[in-house]
Amino acid sequence: MSKIGTLKLTGASGTEYTFNVYPYNTDFKAIAGVYYISKRTEKADGRGNHSAIYVGQTEDLSTRFDGHHDEACFLKNRANC
Fold first, then answer.
1. Contact 46, 62 (CB under 8 A)
2. Beta pairing partners, 25
3. Residue 1 to residue 54: CA distance in whole angstroms
């Protein structure tokens, strides 16, 4: 799947982090990473608005979402990114 855009989030320390935004069902390569699960809605200007659902980290993005322990929560909250 193609990258939708980018999302900037500010951590508790004040550090800004930039995330690439992909559809929820994207297949990733086997790399480590921090991930942000959200429900994205599109604004009138075409940009996205994200409601946070979950933040995590993994050693392997290619397998992390296979049977994720909070998958029911993602689906209940209509995660799409």
1. no
2. none
3. 21
